[in-house]
Amino acid sequence: MADFRPGTPEQEEFLRDLVGAGYLIESGVAGVYGRGDAFERVRLGFDAKVTAASETEAPEHMVFPPLLPRRQMEEVGYLKSFPHLACTVFAFEGDEDQAAEQERRADEHGDWSEYQEMTDLVLKPAACYPVYPAIAARGALAPGGVMIDAGGTYVFRHEPSGDPARLQAFHQREIVRIGEPETVIEWRNRWRDRSLELLRSVGLDATPDVASDPFFGRSGRLLARSQRAQELKFEVVVQIAGPEPTAVASFNYHQDHFSSVYGIEMAVEDGGDATAHTACLGFGLERITLALVREHGLDQDRWPAAVLAELGL
Amino acid sequence: MREQIRQVIREHGHLAVDIDGLADAADLYQAGMTSHASVNVMIALEDTFDVEFLDSMLKRSVFESVDSIAQALTEVGVPA
């Protein structure tokens, strides 16, 4: 079991307020909540703003389930970088006696794991992962590459916490750009700036920052510092329930990491191929919703009219 | 020490070029070593020399060249 990280008193109080006002519905597991009507209105309102902002670039839309083939998690090296966040799907395999024993133990809330076998699925930890093999399967890309809107799908990170801004299951609105290195870097930087406009238009005090992923262990410290030194990852942070500001969006340049794994190539004029580079952006829709509630209050009737209009509410 | 460092880089650095053609001061990242490969180099160096790099050494610049790696290894007690 991953260690439970308690929230600060301020975060725990904010969580109680969110539950009390019907934004979140407790499940009994930290970091896994139902969303009430008030929450979903805001989340979908911001999601629609992202859609409107991206439509000018005419992205191709792809939607994938919240599960990922286990093989893909293995291929992209997730278990090397983030073994502590991964979650694998297991299922029953056995005969009738074993099923009966499993049920007996489960009825007592005991340990029934010995009757479970690993399946070929894991919980999807990032919305963009299925996009790369799907694009690679098409063959070499035409100059300019592609932009894929992977939608706002549920992703999972195994990190139970008392901070309502650190959920285990949340919606990540991801858009992926695959193309020449200079094309994807320019796109990544332009969207980082555009995200500031989007977040500020709904009254959030958003600021950009160089960032790193939560890589595991000592080797992870080397990876994280390398990522920062190369400015491969930017986050946009907003104050939610202290003490530190929380990242609500990230803008990531992967260089040729995913394209090398899956063999994504750019067709070049002299007839050869060149390895494509990739970048993705992700908006944490729950965190943005929480930031909006924190900024404007639990009662949406009292939110500024301009903010409600921006969200289509 | 430098020949052992070169052997580790040869096995784990996934360079785009032969390390024999690179000077001790040459930039390994420029030669094609990725961040993920540098992690494998770091772990293999610790195994080879039976040392542990200090936390402050777990950064990109330390694994940039044979020279910079040799300097870090000297600092954690490997005889030059």
Would you mind describing this structure in some detail?
The complex is a heterodimer of chains A (313) and B (80). By secondary structure, chain A is α+β, with helices and mostly antiparallel strands. Chain A is built from eleven helices and 14 strands. Chain A has helices spanning 9-20, 37-54, 70-75, 78-81, 96-107, 131-136, 181-201, 217-229, 257-262, 285-296, 305-310; strands at 24-26, 33-35, 60-61, 67-69, 88-92, 116-123, 146-156, 169-179, 207-210, 233-238, 246-255, 265-267, 273-275, 277-284. The longest helix of chain A has 21 residues, at 181-201. Chain B is built from three helices and no strands. Chain B has helices at 2-12, 35-49, 66-75. The longest helix of chain B is centred in the middle third of the chain and has 15 residues, at 35-49. The radius of gyration of chain B is 11 Å and the shape is globular. Chain B starts with a helix and ends in a 5-residue tail after the last helix. The chains are: A alpha+beta (313), B mainly alpha (80). Chain A binds chain B through residues 77, 80, 218-219, 221-223, 225-227, 229-230, 255, 257, and chain B through 34-36, 38-39, 42-43, 55, 58-61, 63.
What's this, in brief?
The complex is a heterodimer of chains A (313) and B (80). Chain A is of the alpha+beta class and 313 residues long. Chain A is built from eleven helices and 14 strands.
